[in-house]
């Protein structure tokens, strides 16, 4: 039910954003001299309604891309690359690094993380698994996972690679707020 309500909210937000963007583009288009307007745009923009519908559909499509999808209902997600994400269900303390396994071949759950220099730095923490190691770094470009047994081991590595130390890692809620607030919240569905 939460997902359905959230989806209707997103449809309403997409409709309003489409109207605002269409109005702005329509007035910008009208500022262009008639002899410089391409014919295909003239036929496409006979009505502002057609522009509004096109922009709204584009925004709706964008909402379901990896960089536009922030989750629906009780599912929240933060993209870390085009194909990788950290998901959270029911606002729990745990995030799950989707489609990546630990050295013990378990799913990776974490409570604190930070992405820096295209590297995800995080702790390994879960009620489901008893991990051998406490921290890890995941290089997004090379898709290489490196685990660290203790916090000191991780902090030494982080200092040598100019990565955030364990005291700079943030919770899922803090990372979600930082990533999805501001211009993304106001200007995107």
Question: In terms of topology, how is this protein built?
Answer:
Blueprint: H1 2-31, H2 39-44, H3 48-63, E1 75-79, E2 85-89, E3 95-101, E4 107-110, E5 113-116, E6 119-123, E7 135-139, E8 144-148, H4 151-160, H5 172-180, H6 183-187
Antiparallel strand pairs: 1-2, 2-3, 3-4, 5-6, 6-7, 7-8
Describe the structure.
With about 190 residues, the protein is of the alpha+beta class. The chain contains 6 helices and 8 strands. The strands form 2 sheets. It has a 4-stranded antiparallel beta sheet with strand order 1-2-3-4, covered by helices on one side. A 4-stranded antiparallel beta sheet has the order 5-6-7-8. Strand 5 and strand 6 form a beta hairpin.
Task: Name the features.
about 190 residues; alpha+beta; four-stranded antiparallel β-sheet; 6 helices; 8 strands; about 20% strand; elongated
Q: Describe the largest sheet.
A: 4 strands, antiparallel
Shape: elongated
Number of continuous helical runs? 6
Q: Which consecutive residue ranges, at least 5 long each, have pLDDT under 50? A: none
**Span between termini:** 20 Å
Beta strands, count: 8
Summarize the structure.
With 189 residues, this protein is an alpha+beta fold. It has helices at residues 2-31, 39-44, 48-63, 151-160, 172-180, 183-187, and strands spanning 75-79, 85-89, 95-101, 107-110, 113-116, 119-123, 135-139, 144-148.
């Amino acid at each position: 039910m939460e997902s359905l309500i959230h989806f209707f909210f997103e449809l309403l937000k997409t409709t309003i954003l489409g109207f605002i963007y269409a109005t702005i583009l329509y007035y910008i288009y009208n500022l262009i001299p008639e002899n410089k307007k391409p014919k295909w745009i003239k036929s496409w923009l006979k009505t502002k309604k057609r522009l509004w519908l096109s922009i709204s559909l584009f925004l709706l499509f964008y909402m379901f891309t990896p960089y536009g999808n922030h989750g629906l209902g009780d599912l929240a997600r933060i993209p870390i690359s085009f194909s990788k994400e950290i998901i959270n269900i029911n606002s729990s303390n745990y995030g799950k690094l989707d489609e990546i396994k630990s050295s013990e071949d378990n799913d990776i759950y974490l409570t604190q993380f930070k992405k820096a220099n295209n590297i995800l730095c995080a702790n390994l923490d879960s009620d489901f698994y008893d991990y051998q190691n406490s921290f890890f770094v995941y290089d997004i470009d090379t898709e290489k996972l490196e685990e660290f047994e203790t916090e000191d081991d991780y902090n030494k590595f982080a200092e040598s690679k100019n990565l955030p130390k364990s005291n700079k890692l943030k919770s899922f809620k803090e990372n979600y707020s930082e990533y999805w607030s501001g211009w993304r919240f106001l200007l995107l569905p």
